[in-house]
C-alpha cells in the first residue's frame, strides 16, 4: 500500500489536532501515513513519496509561521512534477487573510510542478464537532483522489 507523507507545524495544538483527524480519514481509507513535524523533517524526504499532505497554521496577517519557514525555503528548489498534494491549516477569521499560509504553500507546490488534487481545508482555530467531521472527510477525499489520478 502506498504511504502518504504528512508534514505539519503547530504552535497551540490546533493544527496538530487537525493533522490527527485528517490522518484518521486517510487511514480509514486504507493508506498508511508517515506524519512528521516540519521542524524535524528534511524537505528532501518528499522525493521518497508520490503523495504529500502539508499543514500549517497562519501567523499574523496571512503569513507562514517561523516553524514552517525553513521547510518552505528548502522545498522551493525541489521538483514536484507528478507528485500529488493537498494542504490544510488553521487560522483566525478576525484577520483579513484567513489561513493565508495555506494559499502560500499551495502556490509554492504548483510553482514546483506539484499537483493540488483537492481544495484546501481551512479551519477556524481549534476544530469544533463539525470541523472534526470535515477534517476526516478531507483525509478520505484526499485518499480517494490519490487512487483516481
List the helices and strands and how they pair.
Blueprint: E1 3-8, H1 14-28, E2 32-37, E3 51-57, H2 66-75, E4 84-91, H3 100-111, E5 115-116, E6 121-124, H4 129-148
Parallel strand pairs: 1-2, 1-3, 3-4, 4-5, 4-6
Helix pairs in contact: 1-4
Overall number of strands: 6
Cα separation of the termini = 16 Å
Mean pLDDT: 94
Oligomer: single chain
Main structural class:
alpha/beta
Elements, N to C (H/E) = EHEEHEHEEH
Give the count of helical stretches: 4
Helical fraction: 25-40%
- What gross morphology would you assign? globular
Q: Sketch the major β-sheet.
A: 6 strands, parallel
Report the radius of gyration as a whole number of Å. Answer: 14 Å
Low-confidence stretches: none
* Residue fraction in strands: 15-25%
Description:
The chain is α/β, with parallel strands linked by helices. It contains 4 helices and 6 strands. The chain has helices at 14-28, 66-75, 100-111, 129-148; strands at 3-8, 32-37, 51-57, 84-91, 115-116, 121-124. Strands 1, 2, 3, 4, 5 and 6 form a 6-stranded parallel beta sheet that branches. Helix 1 (14-28) crosses helix 4 (129-148). The two termini are 16 Å apart. 40% of the residues are buried. The mean pLDDT is 94.
Quickly describe the structure.
The chain is α/β, with parallel strands linked by helices and 149 residues long. It is 38% helix and 22% strand.
Amino acid at each position: 500500500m502506498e504511504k502518504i507523507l504528512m508534514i505539519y507545524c503547530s504552535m497551540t495544538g490546533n493544527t496538530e489536532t487537525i493533522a490527527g483527524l485528517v490522518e484518521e480519514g486517510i487511514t480509514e481509507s486504507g493508506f498508511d501515513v508517515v506524519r512528521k513535524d516540519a521542524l524535524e523533517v528534511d524537505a528532501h524526504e518528499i522525493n521518497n513519496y508520490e503523495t504529500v499532505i502539508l499543514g500549517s497554521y497562519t501567523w499574523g496577517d496571512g503569513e507562514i509561521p517561523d516553524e514552517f519557514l525553513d521547510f518552505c525555503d528548502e522545498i522551493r528548489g525541489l521538483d514536484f512534477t507528478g507528485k500529488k498534494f493537498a494542504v490544510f491549516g488553521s487560522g483566525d477569521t478576525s484577520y483579513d487573510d484567513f489561513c493565508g499560509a495555506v494559499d502560500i504553500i499551495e502556490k509554492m507546490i504548483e510553482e514546483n510542478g506539484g499537483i493540488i488534487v483537492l481544495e484546501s481545508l481551512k479551519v477556524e482555530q481549534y476544530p469544533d464537532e463539525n470541523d472534526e467531521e470535515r477534517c476526516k472527510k478531507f483525509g478520505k477525499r484526499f485518499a480517494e483522489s490519490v487512487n483516481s489520478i
